[in-house]
Design goal:
Elements: H1 2-14, E1 17-19, E2 24-28, E3 32-33, H2 40-56, E4 61-65, H3 78-84, E5 92-98, E6 106-114, E7 121-130, H4 133-143, H5 153-157, H6 160-180, E8 191-193, E9 198-207, E10 212-213, E11 217-221, E12 224-225, E13 234-240, E14 242-250, E15 263-269, E16 275-280, E17 286-290
Length: 291
């Protein structure tokens, strides 16, 4: 609770507008790839981002992208529940598992809604989005062989397969009301609207358990590549106050650390505290700290 009081104080001090909306806050861990297709990691990455974008535009939900590390599996969510811990800013966890049907002309995902503190299942269903078989191979040729497949979003989003993934995210969003109609928001985080204020933001990645920092990583913020702004491990760029999401991939992670193939996180930027420390734990899980 102290964390939430501090969060509210920071929002008020920074001048961000707060509302007492009745949004359910949904934590979105990485889409688990159980499909074993070549494009599986790319599909999983973009589905998580599409879900985040769709829910962010909704009046009923507030999404938070989570990064529980490379050991995370939707087949055993005990680690996810431990990772979420006693956070009071999440009402639900949306756990999605990509199934092995993309080559056959469909993207199939199993979806489960969990209580964040007990891990109890609230609802589950299967969502499917059809596309032509040629769309898979066109997307494959457009994305594979690039410098970093997981960050090459433009070609994928404009492809037939990208359209199928976007429709799938929309289907999941449209199904949520019937699965959550009996739930009341409990999360204490206020609804935040962006202001016109823009100021400097810095990021750095640490491995606190190794007493080390990352000096080599890729970084995108709100889909803009900020990798070139990284100097001696610290990035620096301009960002409006309010909600944002970032993607990063450390290239110098400690040996045997189970990092994710790509990290995707969301948070709130305030000009009051503009340095974001992204700390990776032993299992590749992320903990955020603002300074």
């Amino acid at each position: 609770m102290k964390r939430q009081v501090l969060f509210l104080a920071v929002m008020l001090a920074s001048g961000l507008r707060l509302a007492a909306g009745q949004q359910l806050t949904i934590g979105i861990p990485p889409v688990f790839d159980a499909g074993s297709d070549q494009l599986g990691p790319t599909i999983a990455q973009h589905l998580a981002l599409d879900l985040y974008g769709d829910l962010r535009r909704s009046n009923a939900y507030r999404p938070i992208l989570l990064a529980p590390g490379g050991v995370y599996s939707s087949l055993d969510t005990s680690w996810l529940i431990d990772y979420v811990g006693n956070r009071q800013d999440i009402d639900l966890l949306l756990v999605a598992t990509l199934k092995p049907n993309a080559k056959g002309g469909a993207v199939v995902v199993d979806v489960t809604l969990l209580k964040p503190h007990s891990g109890d299942s609230i609802a589950s269903w299967t969502a499917t989005s059809e596309f032509g078989k040629k769309g898979f191979f066109k997307a494959l040729g457009a994305t594979l062989g690039t410098q970093n497949d997981s960050l090459s979003g433009t070609a994928f989003a404009s492809s037939e397969l990208g359209g199928a993934v976007a429709r799938l995210a929309g289907s999941i969003r449209d199904t949520l009301p019937s699965k959550t109609s009996a739930l009341q928001p409990l999360a204490t985080v206020p609804v935040v609207a962006s202001t016109a204020k823009t100021c400097a933001m810095q990021t750095r990645i640490t491995y606190a358990y190794k007493h080390a920092v990352s000096r080599s990583y890729t970084l995108q913020v709100n889909e803009l590549d900020q990798t070139s702004t990284i100097h001696d491990g610290v990035s620096s760029f301009q960002l409006p106050e309010g909600l944002f999401f970032l993607q990063f991939n450390p290239n110098d992670a400690p040996y045997n650390m189970s990092k994710q193939s790509i990290y995707q996180l969301s948070d709130v930027h305030s000009c009051d505290k503009s340095t974001l420390t992204i700390d990776l734990g032993k299992q590749g899980e992320v903990h955020l700290r603002w300074e």
